[in-house]
Amino acid sequence: MATRGRPREFDVEEALDRAIEVFWRQGYGGTSLTDLTEAMGVSRPSLYAAFGNKEETFKRAVDRYAEIDMAYVTEALAEPTALEVARRFLFDNVEAVTTPGRPPGCLSIQGGLAAGPEDAEIVRFLADRRSGGEARLAERFARARAVGDLASDEDPADLAKYLNTVSAGLAVQAAAGAPRDALHRVAERALRAFPGTPTP
Description:
Blueprint: H1 12-26, H2 33-40, H3 44-51, H4 54-69, H5 71-77, H6 82-97, H7 107-110, H8 120-146, H9 156-175, H10 180-191
Helix pairs in contact: 1-2, 1-4, 5-6, 6-9, 6-10, 8-9, 9-10
Protein name: TetR family transcriptional regulator
GO molecular function: DNA binding
InterPro entries: Homeodomain-like_sf (IPR009057), HTH_TetR (IPR001647), Tet_transcr_reg_TetR-rel_C_sf (IPR036271)
């Protein structure tokens, strides 16, 4: 009769939430396995058994972060017009990067800031995640253009790149201590350059 494996000694999602905090504050390169095991409350063998290694733990943490902290992106994409998509995307981004009780900024940006040459795979992973989000915006704006919500000469990819660039800047500013109300004003100013914004 086969012996059943030992049950996990910890809650995986709770452990990932703790890993998110460490990677967010210290970056991937600045986080050691000891930092992780202490924060997650697990032994190294348990971490290896559940996640594989530090790299896979980070990737799982980013996946969970996207599911929870970046759920607003999917909600923004469901707005009825391109302008409303852009507005909700930027303003909800400000809320996300200044959430009380969470580190300021964005894990997908700050997580790779301390990465060295040996962490090239992590840098690529984060870049691919950001590119994927940008592609979703571009696809949404392409649909908007197809139905006449955006002018035919507007480039959906350029608009998506613009919003992604602004949102990254908002995250960096939040991490540097910029207050939420100041970032709201920046988002409002950035929206003035988006097609369809009424002229004051």
